[in-house]
Design goal:
Layout: H1 3-20, H2 26-33, H3 37-62, H4 67-87, H5 91-120, H6 125-154, H7 156-177, H8 191-198, H9 201-221, H10 224-232, H11 238-260, H12 265-286, H13 290-318, H14 323-350, H15 357-376, H16 379-384
């Protein structure tokens, strides 16, 4: 795998840490800036909204740039936003930096994915995707807990400084690792043509399935703490262990999917989604048993991110003539799920359905994803739109 792909994974690690680290910093931010916990929580929502809206917008802006320049520009804005965030004493300014940081993150993600695939070659697409997405899973295992620990020791601002500093090695290595010109093997396609390619029903349905899978993942992930402490019966000290288990499973799943999805993409997606649906239901049913709960958390983390990696690769296969915008839409779909899942889980909790309710919501979302996958494999759809390499059109 080219060294540049690992550099991109390092940058994504810093960005993934920023996206999820506020869960352990909200009290410190609220106290320091004299706002409510709810207002502090909006900082996370602002980042998610910035990612969803920013992915296609920044991809449109940067699609004509050489990839190295685009990556460095987006990474530079991301670092600057965190420096300003670490220095400010204004809640409004901090909120603005979260939106700006998310926009830069979304642009970087979109360009990083297409760059990794181009550098890795056609036979290692899934492995390259796994390295980039693996940055997010490492952030869950290492970055988020480390950010919380820094916030506990030196205040929430130290976590923002740490994210900026971790981004610096990637910024230094990118100029040497990524070619300076457009390395494209095809002429630049117009924005209108790329957007038209993304309007294909099969691709849009794949993006919907991807959002449902991620929604199911983050619905349960966001509420693991009350599930573990109030249903499983484990103490508060077990919460970091459970989160680390989920993160370790995620990393393992991404790594394995990267090795399997290039040769067997449909099998990885189909089996992964089916196992996820069964796994969420099993976790809801057995959450009171510590052994079963811990094993299922590990397995679901692996299945969720492994399947997600294969779905991202599928998006690029379905849109070979819209590489940059395909990456941005995949990023947007991921974050739609990341925002909608916790919201739906919170609604279930607020309705008094119990602490297992978010896990049941995850199972229902996966049933919806499986239904979408069933439509994708229906003869009428498959006949009209064939996979690349199997004859017929590619959308």
């Amino acid at each position: 795998m080219p060294f540049a792909v690992y550099v991109l994974g390092l940058a994504v690690f810093a960005q993934g840490t920023s996206e999820f680290m506020l869960s352990g910093l909200l009290s410190g931010i609220a106290g320091d800036l004299h706002v409510s916990l709810g207002a502090a929580g909006l900082l996370t929502s602002a980042f998610a909204v910035g990612m969803v809206a920013g992915a296609p917008l920044t991809a449109l802006v940067g699609r004509t740039w050489p990839r190295r320049r685009a990556l460095l520009s987006f990474l530079g804005v991301f670092v600057a936003a965190h420096v300003v965030g670490a220095l400010t004493s204004s809640y409004g300014v901090l909120l603005a930096t979260r939106v700006v940081g998310a926009l830069a993150n979304a642009g970087f993600w979109a360009v990083a994915l297409v760059t990794a695939l181009a550098l890795a070659g056609p036979h290692r697409r899934a492995r390259a995707t796994a390295v980039v997405v693996g940055g997010v899973t490492v952030a869950c295992v290492v970055g988020v807990p480390a950010g919380a620990a820094l916030g506990e020791m030196w205040g929430w601002r130290s976590a923002f400084w740490a994210v900026a500093l971790v981004s610096v090695p990637a910024a230094v290595a990118l100029p040497a690792a990524v070619p300076g010109g457009r390395p494209d093997d095809a002429p630049l396609v117009s924005a209108k043509s790329e957007l038209r390619a993304l309007a294909r029903p099969r691709l849009l349905l794949t993006l919907l399935v991807m959002a449902l899978v991620q929604g199911a993942t983050f619905c349960t992930f966001s509420y693991l703490e009350p599930l573990v402490t109030r249903v499983t019966g484990l103490g508060d000290g077990w919460v970091p262990v459970v989160l680390a288990l989920f993160g370790a499973g995620s990393f393992a799943g991404v790594t394995l999917a990267g090795r399997l999805a290039d040769a067997h993409p449909d099998t990885v997606v189909g089996l992964g989604m089916s196992a996820l649906a069964l796994g969420w239901a099993a976790l809801a049913l057995t959450a009171a048993h510590p052994g079963a709960a811990l094993v299922l958390v590990l397995l679901q983390g692996a299945l969720a991110f492994g399947t997600g990696t294969a779905l991202i690769t599928r998006v690029f296969r379905l849109a070979p003539d819209a590489p940059t915008m395909a990456g941005s839409f995949a990023t947007a779909a991921f974050n739609v799920g990341a925002a909608a899942g916790p919201w739906l889980g919170g609604m279930a909790l607020g309705a008094g359905l119990g602490f297992r309710a978010p896990v049941w919501v995850s199972a229902v979302l996966m049933c919806g994803a499986l239904a979408g996958a069933g439509i994708l494999s229906a003869p009428s759809v498959a006949g009209a739109v064939r996979w690349p390499g199997r004859g017929g059109p590619t959308g």
